[in-house]
Specification:
Length: 107
């Protein structure tokens, strides 16, 4: 929103919010608008910090994030063997193991 208001101001116009009673055509209105923008940015950064701290704490407790793999290490090795040694096709292996062809390509 800040960049939009700055672009409007560069064109010689102002921004006036009727709901929040903010008018960027006045110095006081610009000050209030920038204070609100700074507070919003601060809050976004704090949320990001807390999220990162939470993920770090979870990792220390042994928690692994993300989606579980579609194939176990053993099944992935079996796919690779069947593909490389037996010459089975990707589509055939995907049907056999009930996973996507992308998963088979990564195996």
């Amino acid at each position: 929103l800040l960049s939009i208001v700055e672009a409007v101001r560069a064109q010689g116009a102002g921004f006036r919010s009727l709901a929040e009673d903010i008018d960027t055509t006045t110095p006081a209105g610009r000050l209030v608008f920038h204070v609100f923008a700074s507070i919003a940015q601060f809050e976004r950064e704090r949320i990001s910090e807390r999220t990162k701290e939470g993920l770090t704490a979870a990792r220390k407790r042994g928690r692994v994030g993300g989606r579980p793999p579609a194939l176990s290490a053993e099944r992935s090795a079996e796919v690779a063997r069947m593909r490389d040694q037996e010459g089975r096709g990707i589509s055939e292996l995907a049907r056999l193991f009930q996973v996507s062809t992308s998963t088979i390509r990564r195996a």
